[in-house]
Amino acid sequence: MEYLGLAILIMLVLIILLVLFSFVPVTLWISARASGVKVSISSLVAMRIRRVVPARLINPLIKATKAGLEVTLNKMEAHYLAGGNIDRVINALIAAQRANIPLEFEKAAAIDLAGRDVLQAVQMSVNPKVIETPNISAIAKDGIELQAKARVTVRANIERLVGGAGEETIIARVGEGIVTTVGSSVTHADVLENPDLISRTVLDKGLDAGTAFEILSIDIADIDVGRNIGAQLQMDQAEADRRIAQAKAEERRAMAVAQEQEMKAKVQEMRALVVESEAEVPRAMASALREGKLGVMEYYQMQNTIADTSMRDSISKAAKPDATVEGHQPPQNTKKK
What we know:
Elements: H1 2-23, H2 26-34, H3 41-49, H4 54-67, H5 73-81, H6 86-98, H7 105-113, H8 118-126, E1 129-132, E2 136-139, E3 144-156, H9 167-183, H10 188-193, H11 196-204, E4 213-228, H12 229-291, H13 296-318
Antiparallel strand pairs: 1-3, 2-3, 3-4
Helix pairs in contact: 4-5, 4-6, 6-7, 6-8, 9-11
């Protein structure tokens, strides 16, 4: 029984020690003390209570202490609780110190909380980055299209990382400068002969103002001759004019057809009126005969006149086209019998 009670006691002690060591990072405290970092066990326990992983702060603090940086644990914990990346901030501070770049913890923490990679920014300050623009199309005054591609060498400006524009703004501004330079050239040959004209013009505009970068150089990597936009525009204008003229001609033709149809309708109307008037003539003559306004002899004389007129019309229609003309006799048959 005594051995059983001793075993139970030993097991309880081991369980208590395991729970204690799992809650209290003793090994981490030993590592910190061995590295010269002054931190108490109570501070580590307080971090556990505040739901802060002590290793996320103590390991970067050890790294900063070894590098000779003066960083307090409270500032690191505040940045960690704000959602920052402590390890990346400490690495950026160490890299800035080695490159003789002035950078404080508050500035690095602000850059990190702004969503930018502060370590990459420090590295870009030491080793500039080359940004390659896509093909940018521009048209000279002679109507020839040029397609240019530029390489922009930039260096991160740490002072403007918070609130400064990114790479997209640099590319857009360089593209605008290329279009302006090519568009102001009299001929495309001037740009092909002096491509550095684009670089000088773009650099003089101060395109890095308000951005998180400093432009070191702009180099034109490639220039290709594209389409003859001026000729194409003239062809399109001529085609548009042709279509307009064709539409106007079609409109005039439609108006002429409409007028012709209108005239035909008027002629038909006049003919109908004539037929209707001719139909009234026999009625008028019968009425005149009944009323005594027209005699029988007068009626017969009128009929004879109409018959003579009809006969003359039929004779004239039956006449040959080679009838005898005054002063000319038709040829006679001279063949001997």
